[in-house]
């Protein structure tokens, strides 16, 4: 019997979250990420891991909700969290000259690119699924085509997100706009017990 094709998923957490937010699918924030992406695989494919790239919000409430989501997903050994960071930046108003303090997420696209290329070089998978519409991810896909041409690269576009350039470079695409029922099917339980026995609950804001 032929071995199953190994699949690794790379989720651009910001692209994914804001795609869900644009559709007002709040209940889908509380998502079993491994279960969700495993749903799309064929019988001859095997999910190796889901890599989720994000950064910690500076807002305490957002940080706490995000942490609960990550802790719940970490119960599955196939979930791998890779964090970047927020950097404080100053924006000058061109009308009044006033300074606005804001935060900008950094390093995510670089970390995704590095991980994709590392896995491709080590031949850890036969199929890479990129969950993003960020065209900054085109260079690593182009490199994979050069040194590991047998590897397939698919792109799943988060809701209300799309990149024609990324689409044209891929072996196939899927738009998650129409996957609401699949999202609902893979919402985590209301209460999740962690390996240490501690129980976390879905945030009220995500109901």
TrEMBL record:
Name the record gives this protein: NYN domain-containing protein
Signal peptide from the UniProt entry: none
A Pfam family assignment: NYN
Highest rank taxon of the organism: Bacteria
Bilayer-spanning residue ranges: none
Domain NYN: 6-171
InterPro entries xrefs: LabA, NYN
